[in-house]
Amino acid sequence: MPKQRIFISGVAGFLGSHLADAFLADGHEVIGNDNMIGGYLDNVPDGVEFYQFDCNDFDKLRHHMKGVDIVYHCAATAYEGLSVFSPHLITQNIVGASTAMISAAIANNVRRFVMCSSMARYGTNQVPFTEDMVPRPQDPYGIGKYTAELMLQNLAETHGMEWVIAVPHNIYGPRQKYDDPYRNVPSIFINLILQGRQPVIYGDGTQKRCFSYVTDDIDPMKQMAFDPACAGEIINIGPDDEFVTIKELAEMVGRLMQFDLTPSFTKGRPREVELANCSADKARRLLGYEPKIRLEEGVGQMIDWISHRGVRPFKYHLELEIVNESTPETWSKRLF
After folding, report:
1. CA 185, chain centre distance (Å)
2. Which of 155, 154, 39, 50 has its CA nearest to residue 104?
């Protein structure tokens, strides 16, 4: 494979930094940006040409994408629950930022654009979610992600740019922002328990999810840059065989940390989807996807990473736009 110039938005974040590592190891040139809302500066791998600015800054995007062959749009304020209470912020950083990324890529004749979407696009469809389902997003974040997908397809097909839409879901592992009170449930549980505090579960904890260890997603997502079979495809990335409740996840974390778990339960979050599980059949067929890290092993590695890095207080770094009786008290009263 000839050396490529690859631009990664959100390169100081979780998924973006792991992708950057993988492409650098293959000898490619990596350029990236991040506004540091959801990342850590020390996540940025050595060798990345890094710029700290927001994806809504079209002029900077257009400038730094010069000569780029492939774009990965990983940056996102990926907050399903929070989007119900800060819809302006989330929409600006999902729809607006994605449109700026797409436009800058087209202006620079980028060959292929890989967008990281979300299983929030599926909403209340029956599980397991398959890529041929009509999206039914239930919150502003999911609506924004689906809107960005439509924008990409429309503009890319109009202007002759290849596109791929990846739908990674519930990724966890090292480099995830674990002092964020609004998202990343395994990280929140681990950080609370390391502080000697009990986890808080929204609703009755029977919501079910599949969780994807980050290293299992990197190879199939790398393949999306080059494989002709991926062009013009929407592809779920993540396991579909360990469908667990949030309560079961909390119990697993407590057991692995040898913690006397007595979680507290608080009212459910508005618009939260009860069952969310994506079929991985298409990824298996197109990308040879096969997860290697089981949930318990991955959670154990996440505990080790956070323990080594050190406990951090939660930072309420995003403002609530709407505060009313429906707003979770963990956020409005900053209980974490």
Report:
1. 12
2. 155
Picking from 313, 306, 303, 310, the residue whose alpha carbon sits closest to that of residue 336 is 313
Same domain as 15, residue 162 = yes
CA-atom Rg of the chain in angstroms: 19
Under a CB-based contact definition with an 8 Å cutoff, are residues 230 and 285 in contact? no
285 in a domain, yes or no? no
| Shared domain check, 196 and 167 | no
Per-residue model confidence as pLDDT tens digits over 253-284:
999 999 999 999 999 999 999 999 999 999 99
Retrieve residue 108's tokens: 């620079």
CA distance 199 to 184: 13
Residues 284, 221: Cα–Cα separation, whole Å: 12
CA dist., res. 287 & res. 214, Å (int): 16
Across-strand partners of 164? Answer: 114, 233
Q: pLDDT tier at 108 (50, 70, 90 boundaries)?
A: very high
Q: Residue 160 sits in which domain range? A: 5-172+214-237
Q: Is 282 inside any structural domain?
A: no
Q: Are residues 17 and 159 in the same domain?
A: yes
Q: Is residue 58 part of a domain?
A: yes
